[in-house]
Amino acid sequence: MIRLALAAALAGSMIVATGMGAVVVPPATILRMLIHEVAPGMGVPGWSVGEARIILSLRLPRVLLGAIVGAGLGVAGSALQAITRNPLADPYLFGVSSGASVGAVFVILYAGPVLGVCTLPVLAFFGALGAAALVFGLARDARGMTVERLVLTGVAVHFMLMAVTNGLILSASDRGADSALFWMLGSFAQARWNLLPAPLIALIIGTIWVLCRAEALDALSLGDEGAHTLGISVGALRLQMLVATSVLTGALVAVSGAVGFVGLIMPHAARRMVGARMRAVVPAAALLGAIFAVWVDAGGRALFAPRELPLGVAMAENGGVFLIVVVRRRERAGL
Amino acid sequence: MIRSLLFSGLVILVMLRLHPAAAYPVIVHSCGDTVTFDGPPQRPVVNDLNMVQTVIDLGLIDRFVGVTGIAGVEAHLQAPPATIAAIRAREFSDRYPGIEAILGQAADFYFAGWGFGLSQAGVTPAALADVGIKTYALAESCIKLGPRAPVSMDTVYADILVLGAIFDVMPRAKSMVADFAARVAAITARTDRTTDRPTVMYCGDCDSDAPPLSMGGEGVLNLLIELAGGRNIFSDIRDSYVRVSWEAVIARDPAWIIISDHRIPTGRIVGYLTSSPALANLAAVRLRHFLFMSYAERSPSTRNVQALERLAPALHPNLFAP
Predict the structure, then answer these.
(1) Using an 8 Å Cβ cutoff, are A187 and A257 in contact?
(2) Interface contact B247-A192, CB threshold 8 A
(3) Among A4, A65, A279, B146, which residue's beta carbon has the most beta carbons within 10 A?
(4) pTM
(5) Do A53 and B248 touch (CB under 8 A)?
(6) Between A58, A172, A182, which is nearest B246 by CB?
(7) What is the mean pLDDT of the segment spanning A191-208?
């Protein structure tokens, strides 16, 4: 029931948000525009060519990317908080965002689009996976890996890669440093239709994978020993989920930069709404993350137009307030 | 007419104020700071291409002991090859320098701008003053500190006259300003009263779907567009260089796009602009109305008038028909 309401809210949010920005287009016009696009004979076009370009080429892919990234971060955050049993775990815990930054900043400031328009997302994606692989490699030893070692290694690798990124920015003579910083703060502004398939596929596969292991993840809340007595191979489960969330987060961060807070906060909000069971938490966190990202991006677009500000600015502001509200309400509820 | 009279009056006022009988101490204003010079700087340093161009054009480059922030783009300087080679030899930092690098040249003067080598988080005039280095910041760049008088040609002339006063080459600075003022007047005599004002956009970083860096109403380029009889589509933003959204670009539909030939190859920028489906309907893209400018032409320097003289006939071919 809650899930259905959230899905409806997401659909409504996306339609309204598509109309918001430098040019305001009423939802009814957007719907007519879409019908016209599918069946050109239908209806009278009551919009300018510019409006059509803005909505069809820029806004729609942007809103869709916002929803995909928000949902994906919600899923990844839920899974990571379960396997680390740490409410502060977020999808960037294992250096994924800083690894992606190294790749993206290298393309922006040094290499240029040598492989065409996909150069940046591809290098950012491999940067993200490289970072995650480095963390898992360093955190493992003969006895497997403990959560504590994994988290601390992630923090260390994150700081090292941020240092590499900052070094790259500071040693570039170009004024392109500004573009690099813009990318690092996360944005959906570069969304175009051809950018959407990769993160969408990652979202679908990642979500299915996490949902398939939902019962096992629930058992982890009993502790490693407890889960083990239920016949769950804790080490294998943990590694699987780490790979799944890293690939998912890497695919998202490669196209949008490091959009913060969604992956950290949405699992908390979801648990408050639907309880702690993963089968319920994951879809709820995905829908909440999508709604949140779509609205924060739309708000930023409407508020700052004609300027374009990185999403990170508005996201941290809203995310911080949202987290405080969630925490305070949880305390009042005596949880 | 009245405007240009008023205008030359302002220039004369500026000259009088800055030129107290060609004698030191010279007192100049730099973004709200007052800087006193008891004699011409002995070891001056200049940062970034536009300011290096200004120093070259004022005939002062041989007196500068250090140059920074122009690595890889020296070829864009308008100067004889020998001068460029000499400048390259004096380049002590290939990027914007820190205080230690400037101190390393035993410098006593730094010519830069806010966002052009000065930043509140890094090198500030106050921090340089603490180590005995005086600073002059581009008048246009004061906008990065807060509101200032709206940008006008006087903003450009102020830099030239201040350098003339500091280095005691006032006659040269004055004749340069007089020449510029006459050339600007020759342009505005034709463009002043035109009611047909084509829309213009400055498009920086325009080689990808990432949002472009454009020019608001407080940069020299906005002024040049106005004087040339055009209208900057982002003149309502009270700032100089700002990042804008592509959807705002489409909504405001520029008839002309100004492209910088600075670091990103112009072919790549034109390639992006002409192949992006979202931009296909822009007037500037349909008509291939692209105008290329060098870094010195679009940022405050002694090459702004030259840029104006190229921009105005492009926007208004019939007003400038021979």
Answers:
(1) yes
(2) no
(3) A65
(4) 0.83
(5) no
(6) A58
(7) 95
